[in-house]
Specification:
Chain lengths: 307, 257
């Protein structure tokens, strides 16, 4: 299998002496949709910064489609499109010019730059803003502007550092669709996010970074099966004064009309409904309590803290 | 990058740099023209008529080339230092850093932008000076090469200042404490032959003296310094500053975390 990205033993000690990465290794297959997760300060942006050469590394190596970022930097950079976490365009520049200039830095002629700008601004719903100065855009529009800018040179690897932070639900969903299509058309995508349902929806593989170390790297499916239990929330038709003690132990009352059940993954839940029916308790609806990935994420990082 | 791509990338930076100062021309072109007009009126006309000749020329005629050069120097420097520092401060330098642009093109782009500003202001000041004096040109090739090369020296210096700058204060220290004194003492207003030997010797340590005099030679045909040493000094500064700027960008100082 060909790799879009291989990162080996990446270390970063910042100028103030802080060791942000302590030997990070990752590999992302070509065509993958890959999530890089971790709490605030875990080292995600530092890793991405090094890959896109905004941050100098202390040790380790990075290859993009086989091109080493030190030895073969021009080839590597051409293949990467970066959507950084912080806004980093000139706020006084008009939107369209930002894209054309970015294309220009890649050696793309202005005329082609304008064509690409039109294409991507239209796709991201910013075409009518093309003549506005970037500072006149809303936060969500600025994020989309950075996505459009990252695409003008048609990179094969798109890296997005929290692209949906501060983006409303509707636009977020349209971004998901857009990224999904890009990926389906062959672009490898790496994404960081704090919305775990986003990672669960979009990504096939996942790495969790904690305090500068990779604590997990696996496929999303594999990870989710690692969860040994699930919590269900049951909404009741009639208010319940107190929980009859004869009901199974796994049930807990949250309020008058809500119960929670913790069920081991291997167990059937039929017994639960049987017991509830016997007590004349009618369940209106049932749903998963937390996002499963969120649960797992908390387990992972907690375990790392204990270690 | 192929040569053609490199040219496109260079052109992109240059267009961006020119648009930057052209859009805010009221802040970038007008003020130096006003300042220099005041010099023309006060030193040239009002006081100049009391001073009499300088090196065989009317005082206003003598100082005009130096004043044009002063405007070029200040503006070439100011353009690059503020543009580059702005790019760093607002992080849009990252647009260049993620691209395959080689460092020498970043330098060349910013420096050519600075030269464009320096020459635009220089031209505007020259046009205004024509209201006060009949500008003669003895050697146009000297005028043009000296002004372009000098502008390049200070654009490069501005770039280096921009790389080091950590705050907006840092971009005005050098112009205030180094450039202005050196320019005033660099033979803009007088010929150093008026000075005692010792101070003549000291003046010769000031590189701006060589630039101002060579530029004046292009107009009036008189100079305190030979043309050869002037070109040599400017050449040395360009090579030295370029090499240093390259070294700084290669280490990533101030721009890569
Ligand atoms: N320029 C810097 N100098 C010193 N320390 C830094 C610098 N940038 C980041 N750090 C530190 O490095 C660590 C990792 O930061 P990084 O930005 O990579 O985290 P992150 O995983 O992206 O977090 P978030 O989810 O909040 O964006 C943090 O502890 C941060 O304080
Ligand atoms: Mg981050």
């Amino acid at each position: 299998m060909a790799y879009a990205l291989t990162v080996e033993n990446l270390r970063k000690v910042y100028a103030n002496g802080f060791e942000a990465l302590k030997g990070v290794s990752l590999s992302v297959e070509e065509g993958d949709f890959y999530a890089l997760l971790g709490s605030n300060g875990a080292g995600k942006s530092t890793t991405i910064g090094i890959i896109s050469s905004l941050v100098t590394k202390t040790a380790g190596s990075v290859k993009v489609f086989g091109h080493d970022i030190d030895q073969d930097f021009a080839a590597a950079k051409r293949l990467i499109g970066l959507v950084p976490q912080e806004f980093n365009f000139n706020v006084f520049e008009p939107v369209e010019e930002i894209l054309v200039n970015q294309a220009g830095y890649f050696g793309i002629p202005r005329r082609t730059g304008f064509e690409r700008a039109e294409q991507y601004l239209k796709q991201l719903g910013l075409w009518d803003k093309r003549r506005c100065q970037a500072r006149e855009l809303s936060g969500g529009m600025k994020r989309r502007l950075m996505i459009a800018r990252a695409l003008v040179h048609r990179p094969r690897l798109l890296i997005l550092d929290e692209p949906t932070a501060g983006v409303d639900i509707e636009i977020r969903r349209s971004m998901w669709t857009y990224l999904h299509e890009l990926n389906a058309a062959g672009t490898t995508i790496i994404l960081t996010t704090h919305y775990l349902e986003e990672a669960e929806n979009l990504c096939r593989n996942i790495a969790i970074i904690d305090k500068g170390c990779v604590v997990e790297q696996a496929s999303m499916k594999h990870l989710l099966t690692k969860l040994d239990c699930e919590i269900f929330v049951l909404d009741l038709r009639e208010p319940l004064k107190s929980l009859p003690p004869t009901l199974p132990d796994c049930l807990q009352q949250i309020d008058e009309t809500t119960l929670e059940a913790v069920i081991s993954r291997d167990d059937s839940i039929n017994f639960l409904f049987k017991a509830l029916s016997e007590h004349g308790i009618e369940v209106l609806s049932m749903r998963n309590k937390t996002n499963r990935l969120e649960q797992l994420f908390i387990n992972m990082t907690r375990r790392n803290a204990a270690a | 990058m192929t040569l053609k791509e490199q040219y496109i990338a260079f052109e992109t930076i240059l267009i961006k740099e020119i648009l930057r100062f052209a859009r805010i021309w009221v802040q970038t072109i007008v003020p130096p023209v006003i300042t220099m007009s005041l010099y023309f009126v006060i030193f040239g006309n009002l006081i100049g008529s009391q001073i009499g000749d300088m090196d065989g020329f009317r005082y206003i005629d003598y100082i005009v080339p130096g004043l044009i050069m002063m405007a070029v120097i200040n503006n070439s420097y100011a353009n690059v230092v503020s543009s580059f520092y702005g790019c760093k401060f607002h992080h849009h330098i990252e647009e260049m850093l993620v691209s395959p642009l080689p460092n020498y093109l970043i330098i060349l782009g910013f420096v050519t932008g600075g030269i464009a500003r320096g020459l635009s202001v220089g031209l505007a000041v020259t046009l205004v000076s024509m209201l006060f004096t009949d500008l003669q040109v003895t050697n146009l090739a000297v005028v043009i090469t000296i002004v372009v090369l000098t502008s390049a020296v200070f654009a490069l210096a501005g770039l280096i200042n921009g790389v080091y700058a950590k705050s907006f204060d840092d971009i005005s220290i050098v112009p205030t404490f180094v450039l202005t004194p050196l320019t005033y003492l660099g033979g803009v207003f007088y010929t150093i032959s008026m000075l005692p030997d010792f101070w003549q010797g000291v003046s010769r340590l000031n590189p701006i003296l060589y630039m101002v005099n060579a530029f004046r030679y292009g107009f009036l045909g008189v100079s305190d310094i030979g043309l050869g040493p002037s070109y040599a000094i400017i050449g040395i500064f360009i090579v030295g500053l370029y090499g240093y700027a390259m070294y700084l960008l290669n280490t990533g100082y101030g721009i890569r975390r």
